[in-house]
Amino acid sequence: MSLRTRLILSYFLIVVLCLSIVAVAVSLMLQGYRDRFAMQRLDDMTVPIYVQARSLARGRASLSEVWISLEEQSQRTGVHILMVDGDGGIIRQASPSKAAQLESFQLPSEGLSPDLSDPYRGTHVTPEGQSFVFVAYSMAGLFTSEVSTSPAALILAVPRRGALILWAGVIRPFFWAGLIGLGVSVLIAIFLARSLYLPIRRVTAAAGQMAEGKYDQQVPVSGPEEVKKLALSFNRMAQQVKVSQQRLRDFVADVSHELRSPLTSIRGFAQALLDGTANDTDTRLRAAQIIEDESRRIIRQVDELLELSRMQSGQIQMARQPVDVKELIGLCHEVFSVAAREKRVILRTELEGTTPVIGDTDRLEQVLSNLLDNALKHSPEGGEVTISSREVSGEWVEIAVADNGPGIPHEQLSHVFERFYQASGVRTGTGLGLAIAREIVWAHGGSIEVSSTAGKGTRFLVRLPTSPGSSPGQRA
Ligand SMILES: Nc1ncnc2c1ncn2[C@@H]1O[C@H](COP(=O)(O)OP(=O)(O)O)[C@@H](O)[C@H]1O
Ligand SMILES: [Mg+2]
Fold first, then answer.
1. Which residue has the least CA distance to atom 27 on ligand 1?
2. Which end of the chain is more exposed for a tag (fewer CB within 10 A), N or C?
3. Domain residue ranges in the chain
4. Strands ordered across the beta sheet of 120-125
């Protein structure tokens, strides 16, 4: 069942339910008044008839003369008019046209009060089950001389349809009120449903488009709060999917581009070996050496690439333990001192502060190794590489690796952390070292920056938190 049908149906039910409750309550309330209303109505109709009959009798009019007038009244007003003797036996009866004749009446044994304002009132049910309300007025002392059985009472009766009439009167406004209420509520329901299902339909359509591979989907944010949230979440998701699709495409393009040149060179040298172009032992050895070097580099590149992608998708868990920065730098110094000596580069350390950082020793060593490797690689013979550390307001530890190499041109600075980026253009490494380093630092909740002056050198600055509270990752 659609949302619209549901809404309209529920409105319909609510309106019908409310009206029924009110109708039942009102009719219960009116039940008590029903007979009083009927009696009141009877009095209104009958008092004038009785008064007229009495005054005619006082004016010496005969019973027959009075009766003619009464019959006329009965026809006109629809009131049954009866004259009964003291036992309730009917002497004369005037019924409105087509109305049934009434049988004997039960009158009170103590007799009727002669008081006009206090007539006897009662209900009468015919053998057919027709119900009447009646009033009985005393006729004692009137027409005494004329008839053998002088009439004791004048009875005026009307069918007890009062209740039904009352009911119809009550139900009709409810019926109309209900009809109007229904119309209005259905309109509101349609309007409400529109504001709900239109945005939802748009999201559904957009999601369908995405399923077909059209990732550029955004839906307008409108409607009730929840629907707005749905649209917002959808837009965010669509944006993310689009971005990650683009990333994937870039990644595949980068990787194939990156692998293409070493593979081409491998194939070239392999061909030379095969077709005999490399005909002397030296050339053959050189070709084999290049093939070996290139394939080794490709393997390294693929390994690092896998590592980077695992890090970026959060698959690599970092330990979160206190790491003694002095110890860490000391270790790196030791590892790189051999290479530095070979290149006649002075490797210095300047260490301040004792607060440990929180993180993964092996991964942080990997970061420093990458930075030191780069610094040594780009340092001129006789150059100087400095590793320094200092504390910043007890919350951070800054580790800097600085060299006095050729530096990185300003316009390339922002790219050095990108994967495969090799500023010098010469493919000496994999171009992944700094990308991996940045990923590790981010996973520690830290940051990494580079500054460089052409001809003067380059400085990488790593900032790591000393408390585990910092949330990892600064990736945008
Ligand atoms: N200390 C440095 N001095 C000059 N250039 C640097 C330095 N460190 C990094 N670079 C530049 O940034 C590029 C990316 O470095 P990296 O990601 O470690 O890759 P790789 O070392 O494999 O080339 C390097 O190719 C180099 O051009
Ligand atoms: Mg490197």
1. 423
2. C
3. 3-167, 225-312, 321-465
4. 90-94, 80-84, 153-159, 131-138, 120-125
CA-nearest residue, atom 5 of ligand 1:
408
> Tens digits of per-residue pLDDT, 204-242?
999 999 999 898 999 999 888 988 999 999 999 999 999
pLDDT at residue number 476: 40
Ligand of minimum distance to the alpha carbon of 412: 1
What type of residue sits at position 3? L
Nearest CA to ligand 1 atom 18: 433
Ligand 1: does its nearest atom lie under 6 Å from the Cβ of 423? yes
The DSSP-derived string for 359-388 is E-HHHHHHHHHHHHHHHHHTPPTT-EEEEE
| Domain 225-312 CATH assignment equals 1.10.287.130 | yes
Q: Is the CB of 73 under 6 A from ligand 1?
A: no
Instruction: For 3-167, give the CATH class.
Output: alpha beta
Which pLDDT band, with edges at 50, 70 and 90, does 6 fall under?
confident
pLDDT in tens, 321-344: 999 999 999 999 999 999 999 999
Q: For ligand 1, say whether the CB of 383 is within 6 Å of any of its atoms.
A: no
